[in-house]
Design a protein that fits this description.
The chain is of the alpha/beta class and 330 residues long. It has a domain at 6-213: 3-Layer(aba) Sandwich (Rossmann fold), CATH 3.40.50.1010. It has 15 helices and 8 strands. The protein has an 8-stranded mixed β-sheet with strand order 1-7-6-5-2-3-4-8, with helices on both faces. The two termini are 41 Å apart.
Length: 330
């Protein structure tokens, strides 16, 4: 879910916090990638593709072309995979599993082929085999990655950006801003722009300035809007949340000051404070030199074999993609 209505708030309160840029402006920069999200994007944005063994291959085919696009602009990538999620997220995970189960039931009962295909995409869950496939792809392309035991990918990536190890984070998850990420790359938020080489970059400092909040207030504001770990107070939307966070210093003061106006869940303060702990759990605790960041040299021969023989991609398209990378690197 990310942060409820945060993009709307930014567009309304601090339009200078979002800039639309060509990928070429990122040339020479290092970008952390929220691995899970970008893999799911590839799984869900196209019709499901399978090889002769019946294995889904979207996560590799779509990702290959996306990576070629970034690498051809001389952008260095560092993939960050999800570790074990916080215990507080279990409810959110249960809800997602229920949606998958519901989609499976509808798919089994559906007779329309097109609708059945759409429903099948909703039943897809990322597996360890898929993650291993992606790691193979990254290794062949010479792209670094990190897979910590605990922590969500976007949160780790946000901290790596905050401390300056990377220049940007590539994700659609707005939680990354709550983690203090200075520059967040998203798909273009201006629907009038149709060019694929244009992205939206969200600037943390400009957003704080536009909202009139300190960094600490911004974290609390986002939790108040509603996040994966703590739903918003019923009838408190992003506009009211901004007013409350400017009026009160703590969640305890918010609850005390509004308890006669809103129906506030009994465990709200506890969930709020735990959410705050999760959003700040990596703050000043990551040291890249001590992290197990996997690095490799490009192996284009191995890449061709993997994509053509295992994934069963069209050989000509694979070679065309590789030419784009080679034209940049050499």
């Amino acid at each position: 879910m990310g942060i409820k209505s945060l993009t709307q708030s930014i567009k309304r309160e601090c339009p200078n916090g979002i800039k639309h840029e060509n990928l070429s402006t990122l040339s020479g920069k290092r970008v952390a990638v929220d691995a899970s999200l970008i893999i799911y994007q590839q799984l869900l944005s196209h019709n499901l593709l399978k090889n002769k063994k019946g294995n889904i291959t979207n996560h590799i085919t779509g990702l290959f072309y996306k990576l070629v696009n970034y690498l051809s602009h001389n952008i260095e990538l560092v993939f960050v995979f999800d570790g074990r999620p916080p215990a507080l997220k279990q409810e959110c995970i249960k809800e997602r599993r229920k949606k998958v189960d519901d989609a499976k039931e509808k798919m089994d009962a559906c007779e329309n082929v097109e609708e059945k295909n759409d429903l099948e995409k909703s039943t897809v869950r990322m597996t360890w085999e898929m993650v291993d496939d992606v790691k193979r792809l990254l290794s062949y392309l010479g792209i670094s990655y990190v897979h910590m035991e605990v922590g969500e990918g976007e949160a780790i990536a946000a901290e790596l950006c905050r401390i300056g190890y990377v220049d940007y984070v590539l994700t659609e998850d707005m939680d990354t801003l709550v983690g203090g990420c200075p520059k967040l790359i998203r798909s273009c938020t201006d629907k009038a722009v149709k060019r694929k080489d244009i992205v939206s970059i969200l600037y943390h400092d400009e957003i704080l300035k536009g909202l009139g909040l300190t960094e600490d207030q911004f974290i609390k504001y986002c939790i108040l809007c509603g996040c994966d770990y703590c739903s918003n107070i019923p009838k408190v939307g992003n506009i009211m949340a901004l007013k409350l966070i400017k009026k009160y210093n703590t969640v305890e003061e918010i609850v005390e000051g509004t308890k006669n106006k809103y129906q506030i869940p009994e465990n709200y303060i506890d969930l709020f404070n735990k959410s705050y702990e999760i959003f700040t759990m990596h703050r000043d605790k990551l040291k890249p030199e001590e992290m197990d960041i996997k690095k490799s040299n490009q192996d284009l021969g191995g890449l061709i074999q993997f994509l053509v023989n295992d994934i069963e991609m069209d050989e000509k398209r694979v070679h065309n993609g590789i030419k784009k990378i080679q034209n940049t690197t050499g």
